[in-house]
Amino acid sequence: MPVKCSICHEKNAFLKRPKTGNAVCKECFYWAFELEIHHTITKGKLFKRGEKVAIGASGGKDSTVLAYVLKLLNDRYDYGLELVLLSIDEGITGYRDDSLETVKRNQQQYDLPLLILSYEDLYGWSMDSIVKQIGRKNNCTFCGVFRRQALDRGAMLQKVDKIATGHNADDVAETIIMNILRGDVARLQRCTAIITGDDPSGIPRVKPFKYTYEKEIVAYAYYKKLDYFSTECIYSPNAYRGHARTYLKDLEAIRPSVIIDIIHSGEMMSVKQGVKMPVQSNCTRCGYISSNDICKACVLLEGLNKGKPKLGIGKTSKVKQHFQPTSEKKPTTNNFCKAGGCSSTDSGNTNSCCGANNTTDIEKEQSEDVNEADCSSSVCACNKSTFVRKEIDITTLTI
């Protein structure tokens, strides 16, 4: 015997909601899905009338459903928002180029302005070229850091008031688990916030899908026949987040409410008084928010441009040593004679060598530095700036 919808009690149930376990018909599922997002928006006070909101659009299920639902709710409940799409091209051949075609179709379907910025435009590097340098083990570190800043730069070009991202409940729960495993107390406090407003651009980010299950987003996109791109990034299978996702899915199979339970637990966590927390300041190079003198993006770019791609990976001691002023570095003599006139290799006896071609570490560094003022080569590494040097003409990027 067919099961009746638990909401309208008239039509036959079409699916069982992963979030609540209730059997519902298709129309009631749409209504409940949209209403819950509306309640999240209104209860969290995510938007104000008259604001211009950029929707982070990747072409995937989350951003596609977010663009569709925000436009729908904006018209239905008269939010009074001006919506635009913002996409970042990481430069991943066979993945991002295809997904951006989906974004362009969404732009036409939803009639929303679209701006596309690329890593190549902003940093002088694409993810394909970065992976050739770093390999596939730590590439997600580069992409995550660069993408966050790229979204902010794009939002500033579009002059928006807020950025709406498609982070869903599964994403938030995974992030909580990752920060617990890392012992990252500072990020653990921030990752559950539905509005994050600590960006240097002054553009807060909002998460309308914070309490929305990924499975329900997929079901909504599928049954609504929305146009979205479903292929996984070719560089992500080895990402640390993947292990947290697998763990979370195993827990969800046993207890479906575990996703919301983890989010609520994360919201309730507080740091004991007296615990030293990182102090947020601004990067001395690009002005971006950072807990260090030089932000992560500038460190990663410095490593790429100097031929040291792993500079920003792992311990911070090597980063501090790299950026330490030359005058403060302790010279160490290389006593391996290169002239061939003697055979001294005793690092403690500098007088035993003939002295030919012996250089200090600092002298080597100085000889390797590029004088940007004297360099005019179009392919020189000094043209790969630490951050955006050239002005970007938004009219050439907007669709």
UniProtKB/TrEMBL annotation:
EC number(s) per entry: 2.7.7.-
Gene Ontology annotations for the cellular component aspect, listed alphabetically: cytosolic tRNA wobble base thiouridylase complex; mitochondrion
Superkingdom of the source species: Eukaryota
Keywords (A to Z) from UniProt: Cytoplasm, RNA-binding, Transferase, tRNA processing, tRNA-binding
InterPro entries documented for this protein: CTU1-like_ATP-bd, CTU1_C, Ncs6/Tuc1/Ctu1, Rossmann-like_a/b/a_fold, TilS/TtcA_N, UPF0021_CS
Domain Cytoplasmic tRNA 2-thiolation protein 1 C-terminal: 282-311
Pathway where this protein functions: tRNA modification; 5-methoxycarbonylmethyl-2-thiouridine-tRNA biosynthesis
Annotated localization: Cytoplasm
GO-annotated biological processes: protein urmylation; tRNA wobble position uridine thiolation
Boundaries of every tRNA(Ile)-lysidine/2-thiocytidine synthase N-terminal domain copy: 52-232
Stored SUPFAM superfamilies: Adenine nucleotide alpha hydrolases-like (SSF52402)
GO function term, MF aspect, one: tRNA binding
Coiled coil stretches, renumbered: none
Protein name in the entry: Cytoplasmic tRNA 2-thiolation protein 1
